[in-house]
Amino acid sequence: MNKQAVIKKIFDNKIIAIIRGVDRSLIIDVVNALVNGGITLLEFTFDHVNENYVEDTISKIKLCKKYFGDKVYVGAGTVLSVEEVEKAIDSGAEFIISPNVNVEVIKTTNQLNKVSIPGALTPTEVVTAYEAGADFIKLFPAGELGKNYIKALMSPLKHIPFLAVGGIAPYNFKNFLEIGVAGVGVGGELVLKSAIKEKKYDEITRTAYKFTKNIT
């Protein structure tokens, strides 16, 4: 997938579903439920607690790309090293999301012509990441930071596109868009663990629609 096409997709669709801790056998059903609700940007996270976290995550990325093809845009999350960048992209990841600012991770992502989304908290971190080549800056945890902090941080940095991640729910999603973020990342408030456990995938579709109906 062309890098600029992925960037445009993020600007247009605004919601990245964070898929964390979902068994590989359930991935197709979960992604299908999200797609039916209008969400096609998907982040599969590296779980560094799991001994086989790299193999587990890249297998899910490959499975998703094989089954859904160009219907979805798939990325890797919690990427902490250059090695993880390379393995994720080799498996089909089109964007790389990190919780921190690691300049080498950003540069490697750029060298491989994929979308870089590091996490930052302060103006210094934001500018450092952007100057290193980040395409978007992830502000995390957005819910705890609050809209006032995010709005104040963004004010002198309007040339930088931000994504708000953490604490985003259907009831406050639109409020974050109104303060000027380019999009959001949503985990537990969208990829509902209770619905997955009970295999009530229609609940995920309905929740996805609660988000997507607010995109203008």
TrEMBL record:
Domain of life: Bacteria
Keyword Ribosomal protein: no
Protein name: 2-dehydro-3-deoxy-6-phosphogalactonate aldolase
Subunit structure: Homotrimer.
Organism, scientific name: Koleobacter methoxysyntrophicus
The keyword Lyase is assigned to this record: yes
Sample GO molecular function, one term: 2-dehydro-3-deoxy-6-phosphogalactonate aldolase activity
Pathway: Carbohydrate acid metabolism
